[in-house]
Amino acid sequence: MDTKLLISEAKARFNHNSAKAYLKEKYETRLIIAEQGGLWRANLETINFLNGSTAEFVILVDTFENPVEVNRKELLQKLVETYDTVMREWYNEWIDLEKKR
Amino acid sequence: MVQRMDRLREKEMSRGALLFAFNSPKYNYYKMAEFTAKRINHFLGLPVTLVTDENSLPEVPNFKFDNIVLVEPDKNNIRDYTVWINKGRYQAYALSPYDETILLDTDYVVNSNKLLQTFDLDTDFCCHDTTSFFMNPKASQELLSAYSFKTLWATVITFKKTQRAKQIFECLEMIQNNYEHYANIHSFIAGVYRNDYGLTLALRIANGHTMVKNDIIPWNLMHVGKNTSVYADNNNEFNTEYTIMFDNWQRGKIRKEYINIKDMDFHVMNKENFMELITNE
User: Fold this and answer.
1) Is B264 on the interface with A (CB under 8 A)?
2) Which residues contact B110 (CB under 8 A, 6 or more apart)?
3) What is the mean pLDDT of residues A25-36?
4) Mean pLDDT calculated for residue range A78-93
5) pLDDT tens per residue across span B46-91
6) Whole-number Å distance between alpha carbons of B5 and A98
7) Does residue A1 form part of some domain?
8) What is the pLDDT of residues B121-138, one digit of tens each?
9) Which residue in chain A has the smallest CA separation from B239?
10) What is the largest CA-CA distance in chain A?
């Protein structure tokens, strides 16, 4: 299937809002990781809390709303890695999408 | 719960996927299952067991399944004026040869390794409770009926061989066998049996008439829905890039709109479109 031909013959318009929503669905999903017996979202709130604490172990409520005791440094490292990788990919795909305007 | 799951993992769990496919006069579900199984092998690295019937087996198969389990299908379900063999999904627990199983609909396009993450969730049974449509991201969620529960989706279920998972599938069987009764209670139409509705009620019953957050896959099930078609961007066997085309009706006219997607799983609701997709790939 030559989709470029299909698009031009159908005179289809690129739907920027739907594409943006698709990217959000795709990359928010990838920000979720299972680690140390809990399920975590690599978001700024969790990363900032872990970064600000000095304790070796902290108790956090995971995305399933269960309290879980975690090794702070190990979880922080994993979340930062995930955040950096996923947000870089999201950004790159977003830039490609912007070019279609 | 965490300790119990850790003990289970220590035992070297076998993992695999399970598909149900029974051809109808209108659609070749076996062919759909072959397409989906190839992608499961490729993207998830899992063996696939197929549950089917004698009549659906092709003369020249296009894919070698890990196992093929032949069962007698229950043809007592009609949709769009044709037989739709979707009953008997409760047998998944008994028929799966794996300790940990991903049970998928055959019209689910595996396009990433995302589903492997469902094995890491701290639960022995999980499914989707929220969907999103590619070209209609604000679409409302389906309910069993106006005043009933939010529908769970049987499109993707990951389960482990535990007593609780067994009970959930037993409840599913009970609901299938008494579907009209449950339809009366929850005010939905009993005419066509839907596994989604059966699952919604079965999981609640097994959980003591409540919902457990751990049983929900923590991302949305992506649908290619009504007035929407999906096309592969190239003919490679394991293509990951697709164009989603949408007929947007405005003032009696269709305005075609599209987006491009890649590396993301999706469920194709339109069977004709799915057949077209697998024929071209």
Assistant:
1) yes
2) B36, B39, B40, B43, B44, B104, B265
3) 95
4) 98
5) 999 999 999 999 999 989 999 999 998 887 777 776 777 788 899 9
6) 44
7) no
8) 989 999 999 999 999 888
9) A1
10) 62
What is the residue-averaged pLDDT of chain B? 91
Asked whether residue B165 carries a pLDDT value surpassing 80, the answer given is yes
DSSP B68-118: EEE-------EETTEE---TTGGGHHHH--SSEEEEE-TTEE--SSGGGGG
A60 strand-pairing partners: A68
Domains of chain B: 2-223 (3.90.550)
Task: Tell me whether B258 touches chain A (CB under 8 Å).
Answer: yes
In A58-92, which positions are buried (b, 16+ CB within 10 angstroms) versus exposed (e)?
bebebbbebebebebeebbebbeebbeebeeebee
A17 occurs within a structural domain:
no
Give the count of domains, chain A: 1
Residue A3 falls within a domain, yes or no?
A: no
Residue A47 is assigned to a structural domain of this protein: yes
Q: Residue A71: which domain range?
A: 32-101
B196 CB-contact burial (10 Å; exposed 0-12 / middle 13-18 / buried 19+): middle
Using an 8 Å CB-CB cutoff, list chain A residues near B245.
6-7, 10, 12
Is the model's pLDDT at B9 over the cut of 60?
Answer: no
Hey, is the C-beta of B231 within 8 angstroms of any chain A C-beta?
yes
